Amino acid sequence: MRISTDSFSMFLSLTSVIVILIISEAEATDRITTTQFLRENETIVSSGGSFELGFFRPGSSQNLYLGIWYKKITTRTVVWVANREAPLTNQSVILKISSPGILNLYNETGFIIWSSNTSRSVEDPIAQLLDSGNLVVREANDDNPENFLWQSFDYPGNTFLPGMKLGKNLITDLDRYLSSWKSNDDPAPGNTYRIDTRGYPQFFLRNGAIEKYRPGPWNGLTFSGTSLKPNKIFNYSFVFSKEEVYYTYELINSSVVSISVLNQSVGVMQRWTWTDNRGWILFSEIPKDNCDIYASCGEYGSCNIGNSPQCGCLDKFVPRHQNNWDSGDWSSGCIRRVPLACRGGEGEGFMKYSGLKLPDTRNSWFNTSMTLEECRKMCLGNCSCMAYARLDIRKGASGCLMWLGSLVDIRETDDGQDIYVKMASSELGSQGKRREAIIVSLTLVIGVSLLCLSLSLYFWKKKHRQLERTGIMSHGSSHTETSKSHKEDLQLPSFDLTTIVDATDNFSLHNKLGEGGFGPVYKGVLEGGQEIAVKRLSSSSRQGPDEFKNEVIYIAKLQHRNLVKLLGCCIQGEEKMLIYEYLSNKSLNLFIFDETLSKLLDWPKRFHIINGIARGLVYLHQDSRLRIIHRDLKASNILLDIDMTPKISDFGMARSFGANETEANTNRVVGTYGYMSPEYAVDGIFSVKSDVFSFGVLVLEIVSGKRNRGFSHSNHLHNLLGHAWKLYQEGRALEVVDAAIVNSIYVSEMLRSIQVALLCVQQSPEDRPSMSSVVLMLGNDGALPQPKQPGFFTERKVVESEYSTSRDTPSSVNEITITLLEAR
């Protein structure tokens, strides 16, 4: 609907907002020729079918705001607010478009509290809400979008809508950026996400002047520090010309509703997709973990979320202040082991580092047409140049990006880039000799490569035939692409049966570590002294060949510090075994549920374990090649190495999702009672949020030293979740903590962990945070959202029936995967 000059006039009223719409019949879509009275929350003007403009009160606030929201979405979702910093405290207001073409909002005293500040004037201006959600002011007979006098898309709020541009007009200096609400009750600007055009343009998430996150520079395909990839939801592009630089996106399917929101509560950018049956579903978010925190490892420091500690110096660099580094303070960063002399390029060269998020580019220089070799020469001759990289990594493209100062905010990532860092020649060896050796040996390398290729092909075919005979290749998706991926994952080292028999002393009882649904697990020692854990499929196994194949497929190539490492397999005749690294401290449940051993786990160790499990799940849910749902996360499936570093194990029940899938349904419910989420236990629906629920249960067990299932209390019949929830509501959450570890030094961390756990076990999957948000919440001191009631919050009689599946299809539940033997 279009609103012509003087369309809006509001009369004073003590009880309602009164709006008079005067619209000519020629312009009206919904014809209005008389006075119409509209109260708070009613529509002033509507686009074709997607958005509405009106007045609303956010949260529990008594202030009134003019905003735009989705028309047909049942959950009120405001996407833009006009008077963010000037709330209306009285319901008597005037909204008016003046003849020059300016849209003004007046308070009850006639003072302008918000204005569109149109720079041009026309004779016949109208205001119109477009179907894109863009509120525009234009001349009545001019539909050209380039001629808008003003548009709300140039002044975004906390929501990035399809078709919006985030960036800067380099001619007019118009800066389009996102700013979060301060709270659910206050839409005033908080954190900002905006482009910085100093050096090569890049985006920053800031809290005031403090940099919180940087996605990295655009490399022609994506931002170098993100996992942004082509998907089925939206197309995206980055435009950089002499006139403007901006990022934008468009939805592939116009019927899909998907938006990005700068969230105020956890300080992250989140993409949400709407479904009619489940509401808003989280698609992705940034930052995703502690390594995304800006400059967390200082200059020349590199962050790897899978390492402990997560910060390390680049190769050939050392900590600037070793004592600080050893204590966990990495802010001072690293320095070159051998300083640069800068003699016009003499005595210096470059070391290549791969798989990195490119450093902060505010102090950089770039050229879009230079080759990489030209870039190298220029950097070598410039004393200020510390590193260089390709500006555009697309095939056939290049360009030059040079850093004219220290390198800051680097992290290791699977989708990272190559960067060439200037080093003293003594750190590189003789460049000339290396090049000469490469040239001389080129012919030999080609010959040897051909020979190796032939031998590899022969052994691959032999191994392929062996796997087919054992039936493993038959497992997997019916989709060709997935099957291909699974086959690639199965290229595991193969152990001979006699080797495993010797290593385990013929599977002797004294080497038996435990037994579960899969079969017995034995400790073994290989000939070279390496300790291993052998998982042997039992003929009477409750899991069987399918789970064996599943575990091979999903863990074969997963590499993360917090996942147990699969060394290989042994398949011979009826014998099917998986060989893992041996972890000396066995499983977590042996410690936290044992009155004596639990005393060995002080709070710092427990918090270290909680964070490690969370990082492992982030890898499974977001950073691995497939989105993997574990489905059987529990204390006995968390193994501990000699340093008490947790490692998630047992992937026999795991399932994978495609990059754009969010949930699935199964007729066969597997897992462990006490850890299963309500939607999975009752309806067979599982997603990453199923693992989040299990993680929340696990955190409460680690904090309390009590099992969720079988928990009892003299004052009520709730399980551990219900007990923690009641204490939290009564302000006594600290009483959940194991009495043996309560220490005033760590009270804030303990309370924070309990609140995060309760957020994870909320009844509705949509309310539970993602694991990347969990990592951020555990690692920061910011305010946390308030949790809602946990799943299965009922008296024990009902709990038992709720844990049972009410579905007609058969179900199977694995009570315990590995039960470790205890000495008598």
Tell me about this structure:
- There is one protein chain.
- Helix 9 (603-623) packs antiparallel against helix 14 (771-779) and helix 11 (688-704) runs antiparallel to helix 13.
- The strands form 14 sheets. This protein has a six-stranded antiparallel beta sheet with strand order 39-40-38-37-36-47, sandwiched between helices. The protein has a five-stranded antiparallel beta sheet with strand order 30-35-32-33-31.
- The chain is globular and about 95 Å long.
- The model is unreliable at 1-40, 435-440, 467-489 and 797-824 (pLDDT under 50).
- It folds into four domains: 2-192 and 214-283, no CATH class; 292-429, no CATH class; 472-582, 2-Layer Sandwich (Phosphorylase Kinase, domain 1); 585-820, Transferase(Phosphotransferase), domain 1 (Orthogonal Bundle), CATH 1.10.510.10.
- 40% of the residues are buried.
- The protein has 824 residues and is α+β, with helices and mostly antiparallel strands.
Count the domains: 4
Oligomer: single chain
Structure classification: alpha+beta
Low-confidence stretches: 1-40, 435-440, 467-489, 797-824
- Residue-averaged pLDDT: 81
In order across it, which strands form the biggest sheet?
Answer: 39-40-38-37-36-47
Number of helices: 15
Overall body shape: globular
Biggest beta sheet attributes: 6 strands, antiparallel
- Proportion of β residues? 25-35%
Q: Which percent range fits the helix content?
A: 10-25%
- Rounded radius of gyration (Å): 30 Å
Number of strands: 47
Task: Provide a brief overview of the structure.
By secondary structure, the protein is an alpha+beta fold.
